[in-house]
Amino acid sequence: MSEVTFYFDFSSPYGYLAAERIDAFVDRTGITANWRPFMIGAAFKQTGQSPLLSQPIRGDYFKRDMERCAKLQNTPFHIPANFPYSALTPTRAFYWIASTKPATAIKFAKDIYRGYFADGLDMSDPETVFATATRHSIDAGDLRRAVENPKWKQHVRKVTDEAIAHGAFGSPFFFYEDEAFFGNDRLEQLEHWIKLHNQTNG
C-alpha cells in the first residue's frame, strides 16, 4: 500500500505541526499522503473529550508542549486569541477546491493553518478564508457559494463520520493499512513502521 490517510482539524495545533512536516515524510518514504480534514468536535462528543487547553492541569502542560514542539521543528507558532474555533468554512472549502485542484487544495490548507497559527488571522471569519483562497487564483465569490452548497456540507459530515468510524479521535490521525497513529510525534514511528512493513513484504 502506498498511501497514508492524514486526518486533521484546521483548529488543531498538532495538526498544523504535522502539516508542516508531512511533505518531508512523503519525500523520504515515497508514500502518498491523502489529506482529509474533518470536524474534531464531532469526535469529542463521542469520546467525551474537550479541547486540550480547557482541561485542568493538562491544559497548561499542552500549551507549553505545543510551543516546545513548534520550536524544535522550527515552525512559527502561537496560540490564537480565538483558539479553538469551528473550522467548517475552511473544511468545506478544502473539499470543493480538491474536487478539481487537489494540489491547490493542499497549498490552501497549509495557508489556512499558517494564517491561523503563525500570522494570527481569524479563520473563524469566512471572509478571511475566502481571501486566503484568492492567493491561489480561486474566485472568492465561487468559494462563498460553494461552502453554502448542501453538497459540500454533506460531504464534510460524511468524511467526519468516516473518520470517527475508522477510529480517529483526535488530530492529526494517520492510517496506514490497518495501523493507526495518533499525533504529530508519531510521524517518525509511522515512517519506521512503513519501512518494516516493506522489508517484511519485500
UniProtKB/TrEMBL annotation:
Superkingdom as given in the UniProt entry: Bacteria
Enzyme Commission code(s) on record: 5.99.1.4
Domain called DSBA-like thioredoxin: residue spans: 4-194
Gene3D superfamilies xrefs: Glutaredoxin
GO molecular function terms noted in the UniProt entry: 2-hydroxychromene-2-carboxylate isomerase activity; glutathione peroxidase activity; glutathione transferase activity
Enzyme class: isomerase
Reactions this protein catalyses: 2-hydroxychromene-2-carboxylate = (3E)-4-(2-hydroxyphenyl)-2-oxobut-3-enoate
Database matches in CDD domains: DsbA_HCCA_Iso
GO terms under biological process: glutathione metabolic process; naphthalene catabolic process
Alphabetical keyword list: Isomerase
Active site positions: 12 (nucleophile)
Pfam families reported in the protein's UniProt record: DSBA
Family listed: Belongs to the GST superfamily. NadH family.
Official protein name in the record: 2-hydroxychromene-2-carboxylate isomerase
Biological source species: Thalassospira alkalitolerans
Taxonomic lineage: Bacteria, Pseudomonadati, Pseudomonadota, Alphaproteobacteria, Rhodospirillales
